[in-house]
Amino acid sequence: MKKILEKEHRTLLTGAEAAAHTMRQLRPEVVPVYPITPQTPIIETFAQFVADGFVDTEIINVESEHSAMSAAVGASCGGARVLTATSSQGLALMLEICYIASAMRCPIGMAVGSRALSGPINIHCDHSDSMMARDAGWVQIFCENAQEAYDLSIVGQKLAEDQRVLLPVMTIQDGFTITHSAEPVALLPDEAVTEFVGEYRALYPLLDTEHPTTQGPFALPDYYFELKRQQVDAMENVYAVWGELQEEFAKLSGRRYRGLFEAYKLDDAEYIYIVLGATAGTAKVAIDRLRRQRKRVGLLKPWLFRPFPTEEIAQALQGCKAVAILDRALSLGSWGPLYSEISAALNTVSARPLLYNYIYGLGGRDIRPDQLMSVLKDLEGESDANVQRFIGLRE
Amino acid sequence: MPNTKALASYEEREKRFTGAHALCAGCGTPIAVRAVLNAIEEPVVVVTATGCLEVATTRYPTTAWNVPWLHVAFENAAAVASGVESAYRVLRRRGKISKEIRFVAFAGDGGTYDIGLQALSGALERGHRFLYVCCDNEAYMNTGNQRSGATPFAAQTSTAPVGQESFGKIQRRKDLTEIVVAHRIPFVAQASIGDWYDLANKVRKAISTDGPSFINVMSSCPRGWGHDANQTVKITRLALETCFWPLFEVEDGRWSLNYVPEERLPIEIWLRPQKRFAHLFEPQEKTELLREIQKQVDRDWERLLQRCEVSACASV
To answer: Is the ipTM of this complex over 0.90?
Structure first.
């Protein structure tokens, strides 16, 4: 098999291309593919790697995302390492099987180029698709840029296949903003990634005909609850395994993803912004400008959304004055999904900060640093907390 | 062609599907499953769609299966089988599996004609090497006899019931076997639990083709059809004798008939013993509907004969 990379290589890549390089270096046995904007360049780039002989993978050109996830579960139960990618309506269509993938403890890796859900139909970024899948039992990792999309999908696959976890993992990058924007990405040597992740060995491969197993049986009220409880335990284990793997990955790459979230200028912050994905980059510019105005502001960017870093975030927010929680998705009839998580996380905190919920960027609506900076006035007391507000919306 | 002794001996060799299941007395599905699995000599992996077969054979933590068995959902047996078969091919290529394994997917008519049709079509078009067996009992029986695309004209179901304004299903059943033939896969057949030899032969042919194969097996549901549990095989045989469910196969596009009754029985003979058709005979006989049903059977039979004749002429 030909190899592309023998040593570390810094090059200009889109987020989609970076994700495809991860897929190539993970050497998956099976990759079911189905096109959907803005994820398509991930599977196209990967298909070309296969066509050019850089990796020996069975690509299954399925006829829908529902079948993509179904084939992924079948191949994973068979004993294969399985990766795929999707967005938006595609994730919605496969959602039924996403729940089954996690219940069957299939460590499938999926790149998500996040995009608004219909209707109306819209191809641009928001987090409605990933948030819709938040209860499906998948580990969810949000990435700020192409480098994170590359790194965290490598770590994510090792996390998925760890015997203490054995859960599917989705690595989420913002559609177009990351999937289609080129930036410098440092790629690891192929061999280094192969060694870091290792071979996938299924505990009970269906294809072991000498030891037949019945997989996906029917569980009645006498067992269903206990089986779901095992998924709870597996999710709990993610926190510790994530920490171990990040240490290991830091040794390999020199890039350190310390903790379950990135803490940007948080140490002395009185006012804290919380945001997922690419907007964290915009928020960092806003924070830097506000800092120059001697405002004590900081940014908390969760990498993990599932499992949610409840305790760690509660600790980080304890004692600050107010928090701006920026949601790029709606949960119609309630708070933004991220807001609900943070609010619940703070239940155990005595010095509870005021919480402000902002909905922004739906359907790819742009968000600028000055808009994020102007939020600070609310936090400083000009507006009531516990009100859902919208940034960049024509009322 | 195996004889009865040979067929029975396969069951002795290895019990792949055991009696430890909760399917109803007289259910046709386990007859089909055993006949299919016993006709395969190689190691086999089974995928099953949601339905009676799955629910009644795998109540956790028990199982009736002695072969690797996988169930994921209702509409995706063919897609799941695609995944398993692809994993097998690449693991074999990479030297992680050495033996020959065969793949069989079982689903009902609801999971095949209706909700699973897209996944089936995709898998056939992609050319995965597996046998898909549809156990066709002509309605959604696991949920209590609701109408499917396989339910015959004028049959009573709980979602197309008989009443003052209704005689049951007003549409004809779809011809799934013909839809599958249109995919130009190497082997397609129609079979019945009423003919064990024929089914076993078709399974052997199907399993030895290098590509997808499909067998549509008529299988009665005594509760849904409304007949005694000990009449299952007899009733499905009557479907052959009346030519309602002819046995045929299509190998590489060549159609051939596997059974021609010496004397075709009128369709009434098949309809009468089934409660789902009782309204056609009581309180008074619905002669026009019966005539219409007979006409449909006649037309379909003629059409099938023509296809088989054309194939026979072409191969001379």
So the answer is: yes
